[in-house]
Amino acid sequence: MNVSLRIGVIGGAGWLGGAIANSMLNAGIVRSQHLSLSYRSAKPERFPSAFWTKDNQELVDRSDVVIISVRPQDWEAVSIDAKQKLLISVMAGIRISALRERHKTERVVRTLPNAAAEVSMSYTPWIASKAVQEHDRDIVKAIFSACGIQDEVKSERDIDYLTGFSGTGPAFPSLLASAMMEHAVGHGLSVDVARRAVVTLLEGTGRLLEKRQECPNDIVRAFVDYRGVTAAAIEEMRAAGLNEAVSRGLTVAFKRSESMGDTS
Questions:
Q1: d(Cα 173, Cα 166) in Å, to the nearest integer?
Q2: N or C: at which end does the chain have fewer Cβ atoms within 10 angstroms?
Q3: Quick one: which H or E segment has residue 243?
Q4: Where do the domains of the chain lie, and which CATH numbers do they carry?
Q5: How far is 29 from 203, CA to CA, in rounded Å?
Q6: Alpha-carbon gap, residue 256 to 260, rounded angstroms
Q7: CA gap 146, 27 in Å, rounded
Q8: What's the confidence (pLDDT) of residue 262?
Q9: Alpha carbon 135 to chain centroid distance?
Q10: Crossing angle for the helix pair 134-146 and 15-27, nearest 10 degrees?
Q11: Distance CA 65, CA 92 (A)
């Protein structure tokens, strides 16, 4: 990767924009003096050697690659001419066609990292417009590999689905962790003990799945077949509708993601 590459992050003061910027710097994808970031109110104290501005067009003019990292509902306020530069959107729901038309560039990539980019553990799906060349793809792969794991997918429909699946990042595991902690505290455990137990459980599960390369269902089946305490708990959760609840939640998330991109 050419470290003289100039990269701008619109919304660099935000949680996700800042996480992406930090990952790029740590991976050596961009030098701090070649990094531009924009903010809306108070100038952040982080990345002191980078260029900070409230003027998004000034950021674009200083950059070879522009990343837009704002909330979808704030996108209408981002009025920039990308001047045919590589434009990378990390906004949920905003279509490639809309980005091309509004920002005057054919080189558009739509991505969806999640909050785990802060610890370089995001899963980031992405899709590129037809005008995006191989060297552009190399840049995208480098940026989001620095944030975790990346995959180029086949369609924007895939991105819409993954918005409510992996784009949620830690939200769904945190929901499970919250329910487990609440139950544990209700049975008399201290909050600190319950939290350590749950966090260690989730961290260990992630590492086990990564190491063994098995389908999660194979691991679940092994516990069920053992017919012990865990099997009893799994069967009760399933009987209470766990699988159906997850399916319904993901379906609603997918529909919501699709509707966010409807500008008609």
A1: 11
A2: C
A3: helix 242-260
A4: 7-163 (3.40.50.720), 171-260 (1.10.3730.10)
A5: 28
A6: 6
A7: 6
A8: 66
A9: 22
A10: 100
A11: 19
